[in-house]
Design goal:
This protein has four helices and no strands.
Length: 66
């Protein structure tokens, strides 16, 4: 345990940090039209929703918010 987080929790926190950022509205619209990748806020949270390990690492229960 480091900083109060177990290994799996640190992994998922690091994964989400990779995709954090700020984008102005005009830039976001341009990127959605031209760039084939999902916006950062989607790439940093949605994949975890499909992994049982994420729910186990953070003890997420049905009905909990992301």
């Amino acid at each position: 345990m480091i900083d109060g987080l177990i290994g799996d929790q640190r992994f998922f926190m690091s994964f989400a940090r990779i995709f954090r950022g700020k984008t102005r509205d005009n830039e976001a619209i341009m990127r959605i039209k031209l760039v084939p990748h999902s916006p950062e806020e989607v790439r940093g949270t949605v994949p975890e929703m499909n992994l049982a390990a994420f729910y186990e690492a953070f003890a997420v229960k049905e009905g909990d918010k992301m």
